[in-house]
Write a structure and sequence with these properties.
The protein has 260 residues and is mainly α. 72% of the residues lie in helices and 2% in strands. Helix 3 packs parallel to helix 6 and helix 9 packs across helix 10. The two termini are 34 Å apart.
């Protein structure tokens, strides 16, 4: 137990150091620096929310359009950015593997955590600002909102564990990934609730781990104003299976990787 605790403390320091290095490398020390991590999803969510409000009005199915789109688009941005940042991540950081305390998993954890923390900050900020203008509700069930966020992000992380090593094994993944992400948007639950769909479409989208997490998030935010459909075992089971594949691929890539 003592050895495990000591190893965890070392790994925690490694992850923090890698996060500081990643933020400094990506954003530098000028202007707003690492706050760009929050600014990007905040900007996208705000613009898309305003666009939808002009297109379909202030409310849709009894909920505010701006709050609805913002609450869905920020997790989507985190997902998209996390997937993109994990491509060729091992080659770019292979020199750091010279240090035995640094693991290949650390690179994936660091890039995912940066995007997730930025998304959380953006969600809190946009929610606070919009709430001052009466455009964002006070969460009806904070526990469900956090649980839905965790389920959504858990599956994002598990997929990142696959993308990172797979991009080292196949160059085609880098080209196909952006297209795949956009095609998957209808299965992300970003722009609709499951209850708004036909029964046939409902049965299909409920197999998506993203949809189940998003439905729980939306219920936590809007409460009884929406009718959620979700099964927490879908994202939990999918995350466990995908993560197992990702860990196996990471181990294989580490064995064949040449450390310079």
């Amino acid at each position: 137990m003592e050895k495990a605790l000591k190893a965890w403390k070392v790994q925690r320091r490694v992850i923090v150091a890698l996060m500081i290095r990643e933020l400094t490398t990506r954003f530098g020390r000028e202007n707003i620096g690492f706050l760009w991590v929050m600014a990007e999803p905040l900007l996208f969510a705000s613009l898309v929310g305003l666009l939808y409000s002009f297109m379909i009005g202030d409310q849709e199915h009894g909920v505010g359009v701006i709050a609805f789109i913002a609450s869905g688009y920020i997790p989507l941005t985190v997902m998209r950015n996390s997937f993109g940042r994990c491509v060729n991540i091992f080659v770019a950081n292979s020199a750091l593997l010279y240090h035995r305390q640094v693991l290949v998993l650390d690179f994936v954890i660091v890039r995912f955590m940066i995007e997730m923390i930025g998304g959380m900050m953006a969600f809190l900020l946009i929610g606070t600002i919009l709430a001052l203008f009466g455009l964002f509700p006070i969460p009806a069930h904070v526990g469900d909102l956090l649980a839905g966020w965790c389920l959504y992000m858990l599956f994002v992380f598990s997929v990142c564990l696959v993308i990172a090593p797979a991009s080292e094994l196949s160059e085609a993944l880098e080209k196909l990934l952006p297209v795949t992400v956009y095609v998957a948007i209808p299965l992300s639950g970003t722009f609709n609730m499951v209850s708004w769909l036909t029964p046939a479409a409902r049965d299909v989208v409920l197999w998506s781990p993203f949809v189940n997490g998003m439905e729980l998030m939306r219920y936590g935010l809007f409460g009884d104003a929406v009718r959620p459909y979700f099964n927490i075992w879908v994202p939990l089971g999918a995350s466990a299976g995908v993560a197992a594949v990702g860990l196996a691929l990471c181990r294989r890539v580490r064995r064949i990787m040449v450390v310079e």
